[in-house]
Design goal:
Largest sheet: 7 strands, mixed
Distance between the termini: 36 Å
Number of domains: 1
Strand order of the largest sheet: 3-2-1-4-5-9-8
Bound molecules: S-adenosylmethionine
Helix content: 25-40%
CATH class: Alpha Beta
CATH superfamily: Vaccinia Virus protein VP39
Order of helices and strands: HHEHEHEEHEHEEHEHHE
Oligomer: single chain
Strand content: 25-35%
């Protein structure tokens, strides 16, 4: 089953991912600055960090005065998020393809979901749940793999389909097979706009200058073609 392979991959990678997350260029100098820039003023706000990984985003948000609740499907990632955040924030194991029964309606100002939605074939229920837990006017901020990058990277011949794809990651310790789902652009937009949101901003990010010091080749490539896409959507 694809989901169990995704969990096993993140359980295997979790400690190394946590160790590298401060300066891993695609996270620290490409995804995080561009995704964080889409957040409203978060001091005193309630934020749900969906698929929180080892809690690096949560750490930044807590330092900026937010009240953070985070979840992840990987139990080891949740342990690392708890340990990184030293008793601040609330973290639990949860699969975002299932309902968030423990969270009340209209209880968050912001839902953040960074670099995780490509592990889901169907975003419908997840978007409905993100919408339900947001307060009226609250916003959803996501970062995802750019659909055009994925189409090229996976050498797809079926642009219009949501396809199961896999590749091997070598940057987090032992090589690990990572399974995910690539999708056309309309399948990145329609599940958001058809489930109670309007899209307020869409960014095709550029790496920040520090990236170049760590990985000059990808710095050049990412300034020529995007790998990620960031979206801010507002609850209607
Ligand atoms: C690339 S990491 C991103 C982690 C974190 N958002 C960050 O940007 O640092 C992807 C995360 O998604 C989690 N994940 C994958 N499938 C999930 C699911 N169905 N429900 C919740 N989390 C999931 C993984 O365990 C992993 O921690």
């Amino acid at each position: 089953m694809i989901k169990s392979k995704i969990i096993a991959a993140y359980e295997q990678m979790a400690d190394k991912y946590n160790e590298l997350i401060e300066h891993k260029p695609h996270n620290a100098y490409y995804d995080r600055p561009n995704t964080l820039a889409l957040l409203p003023d978060i001091a005193g706000k309630a934020i749900l960090d969906a698929a929180c990984g080892p809690g690096k985003y949560a750490e930044i948000l807590i330092a900026d005065g937010a009240e953070v609740t985070g979840f992840d499907i990987s139990p080891r990632m949740v342990e690392l998020a708890i340990s990184r955040n030293k008793g601040q924030g609330t973290f639990f194991v949860h699969d975002f393809s299932t309902p968030l029964h423990t969270l009340s309606d209209a209880s968050f100002d912001v839902v953040l979901c960074a670099l995780a939605l490509h592990y889901l074939a169907d975003w419908t229920l997840t978007m409905q749940e993100f919408n339900r837990v947001l307060k009226p006017g609250g916003c959803l901020v996501i970062s995802i793999e750019h659909p055009f990058f994925e189409y090229n990277f996976f050498e797809s011949k079926k642009y219009f389909e949501v396809e199961h794809v896999k590749c091997t990651w070598k940057g987090f310790g032992q090589p690990v097979e990572v399974n995910s789902f690539r999708r056309p652009l309309q399948e990145c937009i329609a599940p958001i706009t058809e489930n109670g949101f309007y899209i307020d901003k869409l960014v095709e990010p550029r790496p920040v200058p520090e990236f170049e010091k760590y990985d000059p080749r990808h710095y050049k490539e990412l300034n020529e073609f995007p790998s990620f896409m960031c979206i801010r959507a507002v609850k209607r």
